[in-house]
Structures are given as structure tokens and as C-alpha cells.
Amino acid sequence: MKKLVHFIAAVTLGATASYSAANCDSGETVVKLSHVTGGTTHPKVVAANNFAERVNTELNGKMCVEVYPNSTLFGDSKELEALLLGDVQLLAPSLSKFGSYTEKFGVFDLPFIFRDIDAAIRFTQSNEGKGLLNEMENVGFVGLGYWMSGMKYFSANKPLIEPTDSAGLKFRVQTSDVAKAMIKAMGASPQPMAFAEVYGALQTGVVDGQENTWSNIYTQKFFEVQDSVTETNHQLLAYLFMTSKEFLDSLDADVRNQFIEIANDVTLQANLEVKEKEAYNRQNILNAGGVINVLTPEQRTKWVDSMKPAWGQFEKAIGKDLINAAAGS
Ligand code: SIN
Q1: Could you tell me the distance, in angstroms and rounded to a whole number, from the CA of residue 37 to the centre of ligand 1?
Q2: 216 lines ligand 1 (CB under 6 A)
Q3: Distance in Å, CA 171 to ligand 1 centroid
Q4: Nearest CA to ligand 1 atom 6
Q5: What number does the ligand 1 atom closest to the CA of 149 have?
Q6: Pairing of strands 170-173, 209-212
Q7: Which residues of the chain have pLDDT under 50?
Q8: Fewer CB atoms inside 10 Å of the end CB: C or N, the chain?
């Protein structure tokens, strides 16, 4: 890798250098890492850049990672197909975006299944969670690790305090059947949409609201085009850091081992830091004038009661054992 890089992001809370195209030397295996998030303090941005930095230092001369954030190379709808075609080698899509390949990942989307991020991390470290990393090997996908993003919160163009406040509203969701069922259970309508289109859709009123983490709500500026965000903590957002079997198998054994070891280290580090990053971006929303509605325990119970019936529809497809393992984490 040539020394260095297009720009160095502000060094805030672990924000790291950005790695973009054209830094690689000839003779190095170029590895494109594409993702859809942006900013400098987003957990996925930091983890992706840390991975690039580690590989580009430790495998210098052999391998060179280029990071393409913000859907600049591939957006939600094309990235998985691009991985199978070999147009990109690394992705970190939300676990909610694998519905066309497996129904099992629906377990991560069940509302209120994880008490908090720590419970979600424990599940990903369990035998059941680790087993899901290989769930799509038949398709040609290999999971390298789970990167947590945070719990999700609803925002809308009006304050959402009781679940009945969401009745009749249209919410942008990811392409997850569980998310769609959950929104319907609240008496609202789900509108699946690519991440890159959400800000515009909120701004123009194509949708009334959305659900996301503090880091996405801050770095995508969703709070600027919404009345407020409600601290529902209703669902997990996490990513599958992944590659293709074809790419992994093409590497020399020593390079492959080092590549996997770096992926493991970066995953561990990312998940250690994620709560801090989420808290930081929550505060950033407040500092920028965004409004956060904090629920009383009674109000939150009503949100749980309104969304949890969605579980019943997915028990068979996901499997009761997997659901129990996640819920008990
Ligand atoms: C992401 O964080 O990668 C995108 C999440 C979303 O589509 O809402």
C-alpha cells in the first residue's frame, strides 16, 4: 500500500483514517470493502477502517484493502450480488438484509429479543450464534464476524410516546419480513427502502418515520427531518462482516490465516467500543438540537405489548431453539 491515504478523518472517539481507491501497489491482492454507512464516528465506519489499516500494515505487499463507505460502490440492493460476482470482496450488511437467502437471521430482528447489546453479543458468541456465521455457505457467503451497531429507536414527524401514536404512519424499514410484521402489529405501514434513500424520503414525506441506531440517526442526519426520536430500544441492528467463499479459498493459506485473525481482532475491538460510540452519537444528536423522547417503564411496556405478537409468525421459520437461545442470552 502506498503511503497513505486521501484524508485523515477527525480523530474523535476512535475515528480512523479513511482508505480509498488507488492506494494499492501492483502485485498486492486488492480487496474492496463496500458498505452503506458514513460519518467518522459510526461503529461500522471505524471497524471497516481499522480492518483496512491492520491488513494494509500487516499484509503490506501481499494484500491491500480499499474501503468504499456511504453506498459509493454498491448500495443495499446490489452489494450481495456483487460479492457473489467477485466485484467486491468484503461487506458488512445489516443482518436484516438476508431474507432472500435465509429466514434464520430473522431471529436478530425479533422485537425486544435482546435486553441490550451485551445480550446480543453473548448470543453471537454462543454455539447457536456462531453456527449462523456459516448459514449461507451453500450460497457462497462466509461470515467472518458479527459487528454490533446498537439498539434501534423510532423517529417520526410527530412525537411517538404511546404505540398508538404510530397508528396510520408509514415507516421506512429494511427488507426484513420480521420488521414489516412488527410495524403492522403497531397499526402502521412498513415501507422497505434502501438506506441511501431514507433521508430524502423523510424530508419529502414519502415516509413519516424510520427506526435506527443513534449512530445512523446522527451520521445520516435523520433527526433534522423528524420531530423527535423515541428511546424504544426495540430491536437490534448488527452487521455480518462477510466475504465470499470463492475469495477466501483463493488466498494462500498463510495470508488467509492472517486475514481471518485480523478480522477476529477487529470484530472483538469493535464490539468492545460500540456502546461508547452509540452514547457519543446520542449526545451528538442532542448537541445538534435533536429531540429525544425518554419513555417511562409503563410507556415502554405498551410498546413491548404492541410489537411482540409479531414473534408468533416467525417461530416456525426461525426455529424455536434458536429463538430460545437468543432470548435467554
Ligand atoms: C446500516 O447501518 O448498514 C444500514 C441500516 C439500515 O438500512 O437502516
Answers
A1: 7
A2: yes
A3: 14
A4: 195
A5: 2
A6: parallel
A7: 3-17
A8: C
pLDDT computed for residue 120 by the predictor: 98
Q: How far apart are CA 28 and CA 31, in angstroms?
A: 9
**Does residue 223 line the site of ligand 1, with CB under 6 A?**
no
Q: Is the CB of 114 under 6 A from ligand 1?
A: no
**Cell 456462531 -> residue:** 130
Q: How far apart are CA 253 and CA 260, in angstroms?
A: 11
Q: How much is the pTM?
A: 0.94
Q: For residue 304, what is the domain's CATH number? A: 3.40.190.170
CA atoms within a 13 Å half-sphere pointing along the CA-CB vector of 207:
26
Verify that 162 and 217 share a domain, yes or no. yes
Is the beta carbon of 212 within 6 A of some atom in ligand 1? yes
The closest residue, in CA terms, to atom 8 on ligand 1 is: 195
Pairing mode, strands 170-173 and 189-192: parallel
Query: How many structural domains comprise the chain?
Result: 2
DSSP H or E run through 65: strand 63-68
**pLDDT score at 1:** 67
**Quick one: 321 and 207 in the same domain?**
yes
Does the C-beta of 174 come closer than 6 Å to ligand 1? Answer: yes
pLDDT in the model for residue 291:
98
How close is the Cα of 61 to the center of ligand 1, in Å? Answer: 33
pLDDT value, residue 77: 86
Look at residue 21 in the predicted model and tell me its pLDDT: 54
For 131-189, write each residue's pLDDT tens digit. Answer: 999 999 999 999 999 999 999 999 999 999 999 999 999 999 999 999 999 999 999 99
pLDDT of residue 16: 47
